[in-house]
Amino acid sequence: MSWTRQSAYVYDGSFDGFLSCVFESYDRKEEAVDIRPGDDCLYTLFDAVWVETDLVKASRVYKGIGAKIGPDAQELIRCGFLTCVADKELLLYRFLRLGFQYGRTVMNMLTEDTVHRLRKAVKHLKTESHAYLGFVRFSDYGDILVAIIEPKNQVLPLLASHFCDRYRRESFLIYDKTHGQALMQKQEGPLTERVGLFRLDELVLPEPSQEEMSYRRLWKQFYDTVAIRERNNPRARLSHMPQRYWAQLTEMQQSHRSAAPSPKRLR
Fold this sequence. Notes:
This protein has two domains: 5-125, no CATH class; 136-259, no CATH class. The termini are far apart. α4 (88-102) crosses α5. It has helices spanning 15-28, 55-68, 71-80, 88-102, 113-135, 156-166, 210-226, 234-240, 256-259; strands spanning 5-11, 30-37, 48-50, 139-140, 145-149, 172-176, 181-188, 191-199. The chain is elongated. It is α/β, with parallel strands linked by helices. β6 and β7 form a beta hairpin. The longest helix is centred in the middle third of the chain and has 23 residues, at 113-135. Residues 87-251 form the DUF4130 domain. This is DNA metabolism protein. It comes from Paenibacillus faecis.
């Protein structure tokens, strides 16, 4: 395609919004030199264009990805959008340009820098989401279980099916403190209502009950008791349980106050 001009796009931060930017780029024959969400400062020498999210246009692009590049590319793009890689929108856009040019073979172009960076970012996302299957710690706040995580990537969409299936008869909320997102499932009588993912900029929790604090002490005591001093290997522990996860792990807290989740209130 012959591009008539270069432009920078600003969108609402949603996946459909990003796909709408891709549509506009091809429709206007504009090469996108920057794509950023509206809440991110945009410093560019090029004209910035606000792109409204259009579900019809987004759907056309997504179906086009499947038809031209394949279902695996659709999955790669969805996961890539959840990563913390720098300038992810521009990386995804460049991958799609390659995909629409070369078709399904782009998935195997591993020496191409764009493809390599995207696959590496998605691998990091999936590794982190797998780690959180074992590093989520819930606290009981009466009618609901609450857990706080601080991931680098947006892992909640990948964790949803696991925890909704595992706690299918429980009301729970997992709060992603890094990205201001939450996953919630609400139990009402015999029915389970999966609220799903939503934006949550703040979460203020009440003080944990005495019963909850007792369970935390018991869990930490169990963790300390089963440890075998002769086999203590801090380096191996850091390898399997990186220190960045420790802040929200009950067994790694040093006091009752530090064991409590982030001081934000649940409304």
